[in-house]
């Protein structure tokens, strides 16, 4: 399981993230998206109304390198920002059962390779960084 318990809890409370993909000419494209933490697979699954027709879907088909960020402000006073960045390899999948019935049957599935989190676990301070092997093993 690539995510800590605190990270899993955080991901289940957040409705939106930002997905950065690589365009065919090598430029970044960043898009707000809804997502689901797929606990069984240890992945992030991103759906949409017409996902298969989207530029982000085509970008992932051509180049699966992605970065995905979920963050928010937990408190303004005192200031407390928190979030998680997931860098990884994504795949563009078709004929999937959507996690929301109104979404299309195409999804982007992110397999984490690097996880960076901050402010998620109140018991620990600072940034926490670790790599995830393709088999799911975590190493710092």
CATH superfamily: Electron Transport, Fmn-binding Protein, Chain A
Q: Report how far apart the termini are.
A: 14 Å
What's the helical proportion of residues?
A: 10-25%
Per the principal axes of the C-alpha atoms, what is the gross shape?
A: globular
The largest pleated sheet is described as: 9 strands, antiparallel
Helix count equals 2
CATH topology: Pnp Oxidase, Chain A
CATH class: Mainly Beta
The helix-strand sequence is HEEEEHEEEEE
Name the CATH architecture: Roll
Query: How many domains is the backbone divided into?
Result: 1
The average pLDDT value, as a whole number, equals 93
Total strands: 9
How big a fraction of the residues is strand?
over 45%
Task: Outline the structure in words.
The chain is mainly β and 140 residues long. The chain has a single domain, classed as Pnp Oxidase, Chain A (Roll). 12% of the residues lie in helices and 49% in strands. The chain contains 2 helices and 9 strands, in the order αββββαβββββ. The protein has helices spanning 5-13, 55-62, and strands spanning 16-22, 28-34, 36-38, 43-46, 65-76, 79-93, 107-118, 127-132, 138-139. Strands 1, 2, 3, 4, 5, 6, 7, 8 and 9 form a 9-stranded antiparallel β-sheet that branches. A hairpin with an 8-residue loop joins strand 7 (107-118) and strand 8. It is globular and about 40 Å long. The two termini are 14 Å apart. The mean pLDDT is 93.
List the helices and strands and how they pair.
Layout: H1 5-13, E1 16-22, E2 28-34, E3 36-38, E4 43-46, H2 55-62, E5 65-76, E6 79-93, E7 107-118, E8 127-132, E9 138-139
